[in-house]
What we know:
Elements: H1 3-19, H2 34-43, E1 51-55, H3 61-70, E2 73-78, H4 81-93, E3 100-104, E4 117-120, H5 124-137, E5 143-147, E6 158-164, E7 167-175
Parallel strand pairs: 1-2, 1-4, 2-3, 4-5
Antiparallel strand pairs: 5-7, 6-7
Helix pairs in contact: 2-3
The protein binds S-adenosylmethionine.
Amino acid sequence: xxxxxxxxxxxxxxxxxxxxxxxxxxxxxxxxxxxxxxxxxxxxxxxxxxxxxxxxxxxxxxxxxxxxxxxxxxxxxxxxxxxxxxxxxxxxxxxxxxxxxxxxxxxxxxxxxxxxxxxxxxxxxxxxxxxxxxxxxxxxxxxxxxxxxxxxxxxxxxxxxxxxxxxxxxxxxxxxxxxxx
Length: 181
Ligand SMILES: C[S@@+](CC[C@H](N)C(=O)[O-])C[C@H]1O[C@@H](n2cnc3c(N)ncnc32)[C@H](O)[C@@H]1O
């Protein structure tokens, strides 16, 4: 069995287990390796002062990196109260509260209009559920970057593969363009 297949099955079975806790649980809490985080933000051409939304922020590594390495502002949305509390405390302890906000909320019910870059590490089926929200809120010029799981029905501007923590990871970057008239 291929590593990518095993990854999807692991992710899906963990998410399935968590579905019983919350019907809008879009993925289990598995962090993106730091090398991949940095490459995701580089591939999205994140610029100083821009706003990143990480939908399902886990331990906050993407929003922290966006603020510390890219001088961006960032919002992390997190469904789990437990994870939200730990990550909020981490941001407070790092003194990043002026640039990073952690919200205890549901990515499926979030106003994404302030975002220049949206980051995702969610299942393909979850990306499918989020797609209408991304299409509704994101302005032309913004970018969506997804770790390992594509957004079906969209065409990535860039696809990259890199090795980290003993396996190959995929990065998909999508450019939001103005609708054709
Ligand atoms: C695979 S982890 C990714 C964490 C982080 N973005 C990263 O890449 O390291 C997915 C996270 O999404 C959270 N999550 C799942 N469903 C969510 C939802 N509907 N709204 C917000 N967060 C959600 C989970 O609790 C978990 O922390």
